[in-house]
Design brief:
Layout lengths: L1 H17 L4 H9 L23 H26 L5 H20 L13 H22 L1 H5 L4
């Protein structure tokens, strides 16, 4: 349900607003939620989940999210500084970040053990999935390649 609601919000409100922004500004806005992906490290905190959370899930989801957060923050700095590595870095972030989410989602057996971390897959992951799609759309538009930082 959250994925559906965030997709509606994005298509009705966010996409029209972002279309009025330059490509670097729009991409910066879309990268911001991903800067908080370090929250996924909470899967590694003892006693925060219900116990029994598969270690393979906790490790891959936690470190995958941390890597995605660091890449997103690096891309934000690159955009801000108008670096020539900004667009390649955003592409790398978006591919790595989406693979991380798909990898976590395929491990459905972990759902029963989320405990207080339930808000991550029910609230944060849908936001991240929607913004990944929006970033890919923006990267593939002609404007992004024309407006690449110098």
């Amino acid at each position: 349900m959250s994925l559906f609601v965030f997709a509606l919000i994005a298509s009705w409100y966010v996409v029209p607003w972002l279309s009025s922004l330059s490509a670097p500004a729009a991409l910066s806005v879309l990268l911001l939620p991903h800067a908080f992906r370090y929250i996924g490290m909470s899967f590694m905190v003892p006693n925060l989940n219900s116990g029994g959370l598969p270690e393979t899930f906790a490790t891959s989801a936690s470190y995958g999210d941390l890597l995605a957060a660091l890449l997103a923050i690096s891309a934000l700095f690159a955009l801000r500084w108008r670096s020539v590595v900004a667009l390649p870095l955003i592409w790398i972030f978006n591919v790595v970040g989406l693979i991380d989410l798909v990898n976590a989602l395929r491990q459905a057996e972990a759902i029963d053990y989320f405990g207080p971390t339930w808000f991550i897959p029910t609230f944060l992951v849908p936001v991240l999935l929607v913004t990944h799609v929006m970033i890919f759309a923006r990267l593939m538009s002609r404007e992004s390649t024309r407006a690449a930082p110098a």
